[in-house]
Amino acid sequence: METLEKKIQLLLRDYNHVKEAFAKVKEENKQLKDVIEAQNKQLSDFNYRSKIDKIVESLEVNGHSSEELKRAIDEYIQKIDGCIRQLSNSL
Predict the structure, then answer these.
(1) CB-side exposure of 23: number of CA atoms within 13 Å?
(2) CA dist 63 to 7, 22, 68, Å?
(3) Max Cα–Cα distance, the chain, nearest Å
(4) For a FRET experiment, which of 2, 8, 38, 72 has its CA 20 to 30 Å from that of 55?
(5) Model pLDDT for residues 32-74, shown as the tens digit of each residue
(6) pLDDT computed for residue 71 by the predictor
């Protein structure tokens, strides 16, 4: 009987260790998913800006140089990003 109680205690202890380890792994998994999501957003933003840069470099509109056009587009993007942040904060 005493041996059975010791085995049960060992099993309970092992179960609790596994349960704690699982909780840690689950939390780490969530954090890594958040990191991946943030990196994907950064990559998407970079790709978007890269496409705009390529378009701007290939154009010359109304006598404006592509550098001026690029600067103007960047300013518009910054203003739009600011509006999006304000809208996000107000929700």
Answers:
(1) 6
(2) 85, 63, 10
(3) 94
(4) 38
(5) 999 998 898 888 888 887 877 777 666 655 566 767 777 878 8
(6) 81
Eight-state DSSP code of residue 3: H
What single letter denotes the amino acid at residue 14?
D
How high is the pLDDT of residue 13? 95
Place 75 in a pLDDT band, splitting at 50, 70 and 90: confident
Secondary structure letter of residue 16 according to DSSP: H
Residue spans of the domains in the chain: they are 2-90
- pLDDT computed for residue 70 by the predictor: 76
Amino acid identity for residue 85 in this structure? R
Tokens 């705009």, residue located = 52
What is the token pair recorded at 19?
Answer: 């349960």
Q: Report d(CA 62, CA 72) in Å as an integer.
A: 14
What's the token pair of residue 49?
């800006």
Count the residues in the chain: 91
